[in-house]
Design brief:
This protein is mainly alpha-helical. Helix content is 48%, strand content 0%. Helix 4 crosses helix 5. The structure holds heme C (5 copies).
């Protein structure tokens, strides 16, 4: 009788933990980035591979500031006033230019407001864009699953150690530890450098 009640209580506690993890994980899930969500279907592969345009030609702030930045409509139009002007997606682009409206791109990679991530320091340390963003040059649309996931939380709970998903705190810290050990870097591990 006592044993049964014990098991019941344990089961209830486990259930409570699972529900807590599920809710906390889902509530932190960023909006899913799907190709159909972008206002213009922008193909990275065509621009980077076929036409050899450098990442930093379009994301020009990466080496000198916190943000990588996105190209302005004017920068796109520098080529597309003429190039592929008859294509439907380029007509959409020309529409934004004619109305002097910025393109409302949907954001994919994002750290929370209370976290500091500077691109500049990471590029100075010699990391390539692909280390963190994957093979963008092959993508027709940039996609990524970032942030905490329920499956990872559960695997951690049972003692397995899956690689932390991109842009979680574990992902930052794991690389900082690795870089400090392997290359004598001074990547921060203290709370206040990343949170202030
Ligand atoms: C011709 C301009 C251009 C070039 C060249 C370019 N990009 Fe982009 N990039 C964009 C535009 C426009 C977007 C926003 C639309 C999208 O997400 O597809 C974007 C989005 C991104 C994003 C997602 C940003 C977010 O919302 O989190 C990443 C990461 C990125 N680019 C990395 C790269 C890398 C790495 C390269 C080089 C291999 C590169 N880009 C080359 C124009 C460019
Ligand atoms: C340095 C020149 C250059 C810049 C800058 C540039 N593009 Fe392009 N883009 C090209 C070329 C070249 C093609 C291939 C055209 C073709 O296949 O006919 C292309 C293709 C495209 C296509 C595919 C068109 C289709 O349906 O086949 C889209 C969409 C596009 N660009 C959007 C953009 C946007 C949005 C920007 C700004 C963020 C941009 N481009 C900036 C040169 C450029
Ligand atoms: C050390 C990992 C890392 C490297 C290296 C890196 N990024 Fe990022 N990138 C991130 C993170 C994390 C975010 C989200 C930052 C935020 O929310 O402020 C991000 C955001 C972005 C964004 C969208 C927001 C913005 O900052 O404008 C673009 C575009 C981007 N990166 C492009 C690039 C390009 C291009 C390179 C190479 C020149 C690069 N990144 C190198 C981790 C990285
Ligand atoms: C792929 C490896 C890698 C990842 C992932 C990474 N970093 Fe770093 N980080 C570094 C390296 C290397 C340095 C430079 C250390 C040096 O200069 O000695 C650095 C430096 C920093 C600095 C110090 C900047 C300065 O001005 O000194 C901050 C802050 C930082 N990272 C925050 C983050 C955050 C937040 C994330 C996750 C969103 C992150 N990093 C992800 C490798 C990484
Ligand atoms: C290298 C950068 C870095 C360092 C160092 C760091 N954090 Fe974080 N932290 C992050 C990032 C990035 C997130 C956002 C994670 C996400 O959205 O999943 C975060 C999220 C958090 C959160 C929100 C809860 C969560 O998991 O989303 C808390 C609380 C937190 N950090 C506390 C700390 C404390 C305490 C320390 C020192 C022991 C610390 N952090 C050190 C990068 C860092």
């Amino acid at each position: 009788m006592r044993a049964k009640a014990g098991v019941g209580a344990l089961g209830l506690a486990l259930l409570a933990i699972l529900v807590f993890l599920a809710v906390s994980s889902w509530s932190r899930q960023p909006a899913a980035a799907r190709p159909s969500v972008q206002p213009i279907t922008f193909p990275h592969n065509v621009h980077v591979q076929t036409y050899k345009i450098d990442c930093q030609y379009c994301h020009a702030d990466a080496r000198r500031s916190e943000y990588a930045g996105l190209p302005s409509v004017a920068r796109c139009m520098g080529c597309h006033k003429i190039t592929a002007a008859d294509k439907p997606e380029i007509k959409k682009l020309a529409g934004y230019a004619a109305r002097s409206e910025p393109i409302p791109w949907m954001r994919i990679y994002k750290v929370p407001e209370f976290t500091y991530f500077p691109h500049k320091a990471h590029l100075r340390a010699g990391l390539s864009c692909q280390t963190c963003h994957g093979p963008v040059e092959t993508m027709t649309t940039v996609g990524a699953r970032t942030g905490p996931r329920l499956a990872n939380d559960l695997l951690n709970l049972v003692g397995l150690r899956p690689a932390p998903p991109p842009v979680t705190m574990g992902w930052c810290i794991e690389c900082h530890r690795r870089e400090n050990a392997a290359r004598g870097m001074h990547a921060p591990l203290d709370c206040v450098t990343c949170h202030h």
